[in-house]
Write a structure and sequence with these properties.
The chain has 509 residues and is of the alpha+beta class. The protein has 2 domains: 27-74 and 339-444, Immunoglobulin-like, CATH 2.60.40; 87-336, von Willebrand factor, type A domain (Rossmann fold, 3-Layer(aba) Sandwich), CATH 3.40.50.410. 29% of the residues lie in helices and 30% in strands. The protein is built from 9 helices and 23 strands. Strands 8-6-5-10-11-14 form a 6-stranded mixed β-sheet, with helices on both faces. A 5-stranded antiparallel β-sheet has the order 2-3-4-19-16. Strand 3 and strand 4 form a beta hairpin.
Amino acid sequence: MSKKIFIFLLILMLVCIMPYSINAQDVQNSLNVIKMEAETTYLDNANGFLDNKITSFDSNLGTVNLELSLNNSSSSQDQETEHYENTEIFIIIPEVSSNETKTTYANYIETFANKVFEANSNTKIGIVGMNGTISDLDENNIATDNDEGTIPGSMDDAKIITMPTTNVTDLVNGITNMNPENWKYHYNLEVAIRIAKNNFSDDVNRILISLYDNVPGIVIGEASRVNYGGIFGTTAEEAVRNHLTKIVTQTKTEILSLADEDISFILLRPDDTSFDQTWTNADTGEIILELDGKPYVDDLYGSIDNPTYGKMYSLNNANLEQIVTDYIYNDVMEEIGTAISNVSIEFTFSKDILDNFDITIGDSSDMNIDNLATDGIMVWNVGSLEANESATLNYSLQMKDMNNTSLLDKTIPIAEQVVLTYNDSSTQEHTVTSTDSPSVRLVRDEVIEIPDPGNNNVNNNNNTPIDNTVAPGTIPQTGINPIIFVIIALSVIVMIVLIKKNKEYKDIK
């Protein structure tokens, strides 16, 4: 056999065997995602939150795309109330007889309104004056001719003092000038709530605040004076309890109706929670009944921890000024949101990420980003965010060496820590730190790939974490592949035949 034929056969055999020999020794590393997103970090006012999460990845190429987002909006994902750009607040104030008390109300509301308007300019505040039928008793608790104790409650028992406005002077003047006759009233909270509810605008956040601090004297259809005896033979106590039950039932129904209208509600719990009442004869002033009505208070308003609806504060724990200008103000800010300023996020990459990945900063929603320093700290200067506004920063990682054995089976957090600093509407500085982070891990997968004549470029690129309990390819086998055996056998047979033919040719010659 000539040398040319021998060399040709040898090359043919090697070419046929080579692909299978190489594939039998293939090793492929994959970058798996261990944790897709960090725990949500909340701002101190509970009205915003910071998220850091992986949005996509390629396990074979070792690329990871991430998103860092700051939302200055409600963090309650299950909150049903829809939020709008504008907000209206109605405050229910009893039309008191004391000018001094009216001035006190006006001062508190003025301070509260200035704080709210400064924090959120898209807010208006209005005043509902709660009155009712006239209560006029002399020094002996005997009803005068002016007393209207026998007149049932009606929709005339409350009125709008000031429609929602941004003018603080209008609010103050409205409160100061209400009830110019300085009458005492049998107050009707049911009607005051309904008047406020019917005067809110559409497509606004709606908040109702009640500064009334007692059980109402009347409701629609029920007068303040109680009659007993008669043909039914009721006692004074029975008549009073029936009267209180009707007042509580109707007023409570009106409070609960606010939930159906998506109107937030904040009220004051009665200062005298025992609700001791003394009932006298309207004609003689004689004491007829002394009653502890605390069960009616609890039924109507609920408790501080479990109010009938909305939020409730007690004058036993703080004075009216603190409740209006501090507690209620914070509740309102949580409802309508407030701008934050001087917002900065310091993002520190972990050492393994800094040493073994190329870091690329993508679209930052037109925010200013400092250059990534060699110490792995990225500073994102967000600036200011209005209420319900958000900012997003996209960044990506590319693993430098997929065959880096020092990283095999090691969980690699993306961030070492994230520090958020910002100023609230009162310019107070806040700092919130998170050490939780998305994470990845480099793993080794041994595979054998049988070439497919129709597809010679197969790649696992489904962007899903790999289950390391199942080999991603065919498990390597010992011994000789059957196809290789057939090729070798055929090659040997061809060589033997050619050698034999060559020998016969020489003999003949």
